[in-house]
Amino acid sequence: MKAEPRTILRFLLEYFEIINELYEIQSKDSVITFEALNEIITKHKTDIKQQLIDYKILNSVNDNFEIRTVYYNLIEFILSEFKPMLPETIEKYHVSIAELFRKIKDNIKGDKVILNQRLTDLAGEIRAFYEMVEKNTISLLNETRELKANVKKIDYREKIVRASRWIDEYIIPLNKILDINHSASIANKLYDISEFSNKHRLVCDDENTRVLFEKLYFQMIQVNDNLLRQSKILTTELLPLIERIRTESIILTGWITFLKNPYKQKVPKIFEGKRTNIYSKNTFFNASELFEQFKNDTAVYFEEEINTDEKWIFDKEFFTEKLKSNLPVTDFFKWCNKTLKEEYKKVEIEKFFALTTLAFDEDIQRDFGKKPEFDKIKINDLTLTVPKITITKYGIS
Predict the structure, then answer these.
(1) How far apart are CA 87 and CA 136, in angstroms?
(2) Cis (ω within 30 of 0) for the bond into 328?
(3) Does the global pTM surpass 0.70?
(4) Tell me: the pLDDT tens digits for 298-335?
(5) Dihedral (C-alpha) 172, 178, 182, 183: value to the nearest 10 degrees?
(6) Nearest 5 degrees, angle CA 381-CA 387-CA 393?
């Protein structure tokens, strides 16, 4: 019988200390032995072995056990104890994201159900990719700070080895993954997806698909900001910190080696220190001359500017009637441009965007054509690229 979700959650809360100890064993040894499980249960004087199996928290592996991935990831997230993953592990998302994107582009006019599912799956893969990058950055940052503090009293040579390994095997490859200018990076592929989703969220004729493209586009904006933040942590905080650990350790290792046998090599001459001013001797007089200019203050008057321009209010009812009288309109955005020129002699961007809102009325009948077409409209110094929309009917006939 399947247990109720609340029952499992209460069980996790009540016996979290035991589950945490099992998690630590698996993190260290990759498996929980039969003896280790019995020892923990005996220590806590409660036999919950069968419940751990029935609730599918533990999975049997030969004569041993392991915490199922979903629970292991949950505890790892709660404790923020992420292990650094090699960039090759993160790179697998490049394949899955690229393949889903390719199928979406190739079958953009195919089965809508399949297309919508692929868009949902692509959003999920992108979310999983970012979460893994974030975990890796947190993990590397924590381990680096621990190495810097050297709480475990690690030998200097070992510190050099660890710092060098993290730079060569983790940080530099991870930076390539996040480099949008690198043609083979995941970040570059995400940029292509952002451009594609932005285009199709505006021209897609199916409402459900359009909403999914819109969600994907705004997700891409957020992911891009988050990836820039992670990349900044890697380049401005993590890499200099590890490089400093490596350099300091090399210097200290060399110094310790020298102290063990100070007469083996001839000691170089120590440089003689000298004090030099970094500013001119005349700085004081130059500064005095500058400030003397401001001793005699002159009166300054500010006159508040009165804006005499009348604030424009969009008369929707007037323009709606004007649109109805001009139906059918073969190019809606050009009609907006022409109408404003007739009414006000010139086109202002605020008025143009206000007038284009008529195209979003529920009663309007829009036609984008079988193949989307785009026009360019110039308003003052601004050039807009807009889709060609035909309006044949306004209101219920």
Answers:
(1) 9
(2) yes
(3) no
(4) 777 777 766 666 677 878 888 888 888 888 888 888 88
(5) 130
(6) 120
